[in-house]
């Protein structure tokens, strides 16, 4: 489903952000990517989204060769991916329903289908009663649920979450992680970049640890490795 083969990425300045990274993630896995600030986690996410191209090495996601993919095929490739960020990135002047529906309008789903799909995804994320609310009327945890609904509405095979609990308190963080786990149990491959040590240790999932652009450990049912 996701294969990185000896991938390096150097920016114009500084040491390479990724340096010879190889990683294979199978369909249906739940994987945490952890590591210090600057270890290369965001760079890896950007490479998987094809926002960046590696300096060397190969990346294959869902059968797409992301080094050689043609530009016009990138939007279609990205439909396989849902993405959630630390800062939610909701449309502030639109209500919950519209924030989620928007992702379907972009790919020209009919209004009739949108009216069926949006309530059903809002029920899955536990927001059925809040469809008229604007983002500012919601808690951080609720806003992240809207973002997750938006990421899932087009039924991606892979969900990428970049620090999804970075702005949340422990209770909401835990609820969001449980929701991601449930989504994974329903068949979506889930990758979560996080600094949340307690959650990583408690969840007993695969943990890939990065340091200075290399993978220093990759463990099934792993934990958060302390620095030094
Ligand atoms: N656009 C850029 N130009 C130059 N260097 C960059 C750029 N983006 C990232 N870097 C550098 O690449 C390295 C890896 O950065 P990256 O953002 O991937 O780390 P990270 O693990 O996601 O960090 P954080 O946890 O703080 O988000 C860092 O040394 C960073 O300074």
TrEMBL record:
What topology does it adopt in the membrane?
A: Peripheral membrane protein
Name the SMART domains for this protein: AAA
Q: Which GO terms describe its biological process?
A: cell division
Report domain ABC transporter positions.
2-228
Localisation per UniProt entry: Cell membrane
Kindly give the Gene3D superfamilies that the UniProt entry links to this protein.
Answer: P-loop containing nucleotide triphosphate hydrolases
Q: Does the keyword Cell division apply?
A: yes
GO MF entry, a single one: transmembrane transporter activity
Q: Name one GO cellular component term.
A: plasma membrane
| Keyword terms, alphabetized | ATP-binding, Cell cycle, Cell division, Cell membrane, Membrane, Nucleotide-binding
Q: Which family does it belong to?
A: Belongs to the ABC transporter superfamily.
Q: How does it assemble?
A: Homodimer. Forms a membrane-associated complex with FtsX.
Please give the function described in this protein's UniProt entry. Answer: Part of the ABC transporter FtsEX involved in cellular division.
> What is the protein named?
Cell division ATP-binding protein FtsE
Organism equals Parablautia intestinalis
Originating gene? ftsE
């Amino acid at each position: 489903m996701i294969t990185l083969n000896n991938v390096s990425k150097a920016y114009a300045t500084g040491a390479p952000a990724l340096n010879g990274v190889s990683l294979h993630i199978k369909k249906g896995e739940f994987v945490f990517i952890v590591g210090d600030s600057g270890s290369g986690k965001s760079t890896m996410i950007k490479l998987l989204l094809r926002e960046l191209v590696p300096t060397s090495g190969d990346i294959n996601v869902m059968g797409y060769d992301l080094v050689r993919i043609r530009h016009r095929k990138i939007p279609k490739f990205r439909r396989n991916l849902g993405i959630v960020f630390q800062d939610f990135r909701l449309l502030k002047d639109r209500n919950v329903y519209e924030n989620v529906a928007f992702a379907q309008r972009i790919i020209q789903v009919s209004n009739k289908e949108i009216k069926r799909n949006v309530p059903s995804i809002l029920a899955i994320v536990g927001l059925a009663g809040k469809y008229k609310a604007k983002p500012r009327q919601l808690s951080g945890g609720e806003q992240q649920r809207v973002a997750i609904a938006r990421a899932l509405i087009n039924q991606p095979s892979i969900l990428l979450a970049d620090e999804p609990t970075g702005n949340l308190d422990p209770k909401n963080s835990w609820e969001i992680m449980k929701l991601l786990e449930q989504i994974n149990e329903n068949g979506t491959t889930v990758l979560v970049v996080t600094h949340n040590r307690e959650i990583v240790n408690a969840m007993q999932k695969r943990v890939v640890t990065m340091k200075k652009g290399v993978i220093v450990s990759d463990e099934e049912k792993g934990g958060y490795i302390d620095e030094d």
